[in-house]
Design brief:
Elements: E1 8-11, H1 13-22, E2 28-33, E3 52-56, H2 60-73, E4 79-85, H3 90-105, E5 108-114, H4 121-132, E6 137-141, H5 150-159, E7 164-166, H6 169-173, E8 178-182, H7 184-199, E9 215-220, H8 221-226, H9 233-238, E10 241-243
Parallel strand pairs: 1-2, 2-3, 4-5, 4-6, 6-7, 7-8, 9-10
Antiparallel strand pairs: 8-9
């Protein structure tokens, strides 16, 4: 605040919250925020009402697509563990969207709750291991749930041979199986437009919060082979990136 900025760009809820506690006058444009209303950053999506606006990285409906994708790549799946973060506003919402489509897919879903970096890694490991003891299972990692546990979750999925769907390509680059989620760079490009409009005199209160418009599917063929999965041609055809 001492630098007297004309506008501030924030990335993610952990950065946006403290900035808005520090100022309710300096315009703020955020990106990579899962639930701007639930997080208390704006009054509504259509009419932010305050000094902040920006771009969300998930619509809850996307979560249902993760379960559909899991069933598509591993048709034998009957059970899915959903790793979610209850400390974020989006955690319950994403799980609810997954629950809504589960009956039509014949899949039983159960949550595994994640918290923060201080959470005992052994707690997460025990929960995934217990789930994996019964066959025909898979994993879904929800958005905003596993930033501090990425390596552990990928390792556990490999160890227990669990097909897993992730929310971001960074998991796949590190050895995860498949991801479907918003294109990260696209949010920043769109945010530049909002910053420009604010610098030219428009108010954040009048600029609606926008959902993602560009999504990407990224998959790792080496991981699929290790799991013994023969990925459907339909999935391969629509993949934006294939890591071999």
């Amino acid at each position: 605040m001492a630098l007297d900025p004309d506008v501030i760009l924030t990335v993610g809820s952990p950065a946006t919250g403290p900035v808005l506690q520090a100022t309710r006058t300096v315009p703020v444009v955020f990106v990579q925020v899962a639930d701007a209303v639930g997080g208390g950053f704006v009054e509504s999506v259509a009419h932010p009402g305050g000094n902040a606006t920006g771009f969300t990285n998930f619509e809850y409906g996307t979560a249902g697509k993760w379960l559909e994708l899991l069933k598509e790549i591993a048709p034998g799946i009957k059970r899915a563990a959903v790793l979610r973060n209850l400390t974020t506003a989006s955690g319950p919402g994403q799980f609810g969207a997954i629950q809504a489509v589960a009956p039509s897919l014949g899949i039983e879903v159960s949550p595994i709750n994640l918290r923060d970096a201080q959470q005992d890694a052994g707690e997460v490991e025990r929960a995934v291991t217990a789930f994996a003891h019964v066959s025909n299972g898979g994993l879904i990692v929800t958005g905003g749930s596993a930033a501090t546990r990425r390596a552990l979750i990928i390792q556990l999925a490999a160890r227990h041979r669990l097909p897993a769907v992730y929310p971001d390509r960074v998991f796949i680059a590190d050895g995860g199986l498949i991801a479907y989620g918003p294109h990260r760079a696209d949010q920043y490009r769109r945010a530049a437009g909002y910053v420009d409009r604010i610098l030219k005199g428009e108010k954040p209160a009048d600029l609606p919060v926008q959902a993602p418009t560009k999504y990407e599917t990224v998959l790792n063929l080496k991981t699929a082979k290790a799991l013994g999965l023969d990925l459907p041609a339909s999935v391969l055809a629509r993949a934006d990136e294939v890591i071999e």
